[in-house]
Design goal:
By secondary structure, the chain is α+β, with helices and mostly antiparallel strands. It has one domain: Glutathione S-transferase Yfyf (Class Pi), Chain A, domain 2 (Up-down Bundle), CATH 1.20.1050.130. Helices cover about 55% and strands about 5% of the residues. It contains 16 helices and 6 strands. The strands form 2 sheets. It has a 4-stranded mixed β-sheet with strand order 2-1-3-4, sandwiched between helices. It has a two-stranded antiparallel sheet with strand order 5-6. Helix 2 links the parallel strand 1 and strand 2. Helix 2 crosses helix 10, helix 5 runs antiparallel to helix 14 and helix 13 crosses helix 14. The longest helix is centred in the last third of the chain and has 23 residues. The chain is globular and about 60 Å long. Bound molecules: glutathione (GSH). Glutathione binds next to helix 2 and helix 4.
């Protein structure tokens, strides 16, 4: 770009130069940044402050990052619909695979990576002292720089908050800890196998599943001292892929994707069947019952977890992605789901009505809190 006579691709005008409000240590900011870097979309990264997060929450209805402000004044949130919307808008090879079967399974892997790796990522960051010390210092000096309190108070406040919300409050106890850590190490093994065989998860260029896994692998597991050491020791190909992803550019990477769903995606699908779908169903079931917490046994480990409204929507989105499949691909998808132990689990919960995106306008929507209980959503008439 910038060469004389060279035209910016259609759609680029609407995006350039967007403001991406986020942090250099944030899981979902990293995922979205990698995508827009790959798409070569000019942008500014605005470091999120406490004032910034309040402003983003007023604009998007969600106090979370990344929050994106477009040149026309519109705001977007939620990395998955943002990626899908931008990918559809711009010409060139798609990040969301065009083959319907690959598209469906890519969405499934992306959702699993986004949501199921969150708990181990937050656990390693806040349960291990060297990691917690480093990150509490960074958050206190970066995001909380506009809070007029001494540094040690800011560090203490963020440490206590994250521990209460994402460790103790998210089911991590002495009894679940080993299982939570195994979620990380088994995913390292899944990815190491794929990335030893090829540069990206689906072939010669990054696609949706790469960006899904990149979120936790780049900004948490590859960055925080304790899981980063495990990654360097056990999964050098994953470590190498983090740099490759950060430097990937669509204009240089036009290579082909593999055909079909690769064999080495099966262990991930088996994990989705054994762990993630049972979790999503138990969460949706508790949400429908108007509960705030629920108990679920995953591979024999008993968890007590908070009900997460956003993840009810995740399940609805996966069901909708399946409904989009043409008949032949739907048959093939059903067969692969059955072979990998996902079976009928995708349809166990129906009519969940998360109300998260009733108008279908994501990523231009104001869904309200990701934690809102069902009775409040119903009272609000969503
Ligand atoms: N589904 C959202 C999740 C965004 C999200 O949870 N971001 C985290 C930081 S990586 C956040 O802002 N959390 C707010 C909090 O901890 O209260 C996405 O894909 O963008």
């Amino acid at each position: 770009m910038g060469d004389e006579g060279m035209q910016a691709p259609a759609g680029m005008d609407m995006l350039a130069c967007m403001d991406v409000h986020g942090l250099d240590l944030s899981y979902f900011t990293g995922k979205f940044e990698a995508f827009i870097r790959f798409k070569e979309i000019p942008h500014r990264r605005i470091e999120m402050s406490l004032g910034g997060i309040r402003r983003a929450a007023r604009a998007t209805g969600l106090a979370q990052m990344p929050a994106v402000e477009l040149p026309d004044g519109r705001w977007m949130s939620d990395s998955t619909p943002m990626i899908e919307w931008i990918d559809a808008l711009l010409p060139g090879p798609k990040v969301v695979p065009e083959d319907p079967l690959q598209r469906f399974f890519s969405r499934l892997l992306e959702d699993y990576a986004d949501e199921w790796l969150w708990r181990p990522a937050l656990h390693y960051r806040w349960s291990y002292q060297p990691d917690a010390r480093l990150m509490s210092h960074r958050i206190a000096t970066e995001m909380m720089h506009d809070l007029k309190l001494p540094l040690f108070v800011r560090r203490w406040a963020i440490y206590r908050r994250q521990l209460a919300k994402y460790v103790r409050g998210d089911g991590i106890t002495a009894a679940t800890r080993a299982h939570v850590e195994s979620i990380y190490t088994r995913n390292l093994a899944f990815l190491e196998r794929m990335l030893t065989a090829r540069p990206y998860l689906l072939g010669e260029r990054p696609t949706l599943a790469d960006f899904g896994f990149f979120a936790s692998m780049f900004r948490h597991f590859g960055l925080d001292p304790t899981p980063a050491r495990i990654m360097r020791d056990r999964a050098p190909a994953v470590f190498e892929w983090l740099g490759r992803m950060w430097n990937a550019k669509a204009s240089r990477l036009q290579g082909p994707l593999l055909a079909d769903v690769p064999e080495d995606w099966r262990p991930v699908l088996e994990d989705i069947g054994a762990c993630y779908l049972p979790y999503l169903n138990a969460n949706a079931n508790a949400w429908c019952a108007g509960r705030k917490n629920f108990e679920v046994s995953i591979e024999g480990t008993a968890y007590k977890l908070p009900v997460h409204r956003y993840r009810v929507w995740c399940l609805e989105r996966l069901q909708a992605a399946f409904r989009e499949l043409p008949e032949a691909e739907a048959r093939a998808a059903r067969a692969l789901l059955a072979e990998t132990g996902c079976g009928e689990r995708l349809w166990e919960m129906r009519d969940t009505h998360s109300g998260f995106d009733v108008s279908g306008h994501a990523p231009f929507f104001k869904p309200g809190s990701v934690w809102t209980p069902r009775d409040q959503v119903q009272r609000a008439g969503a």
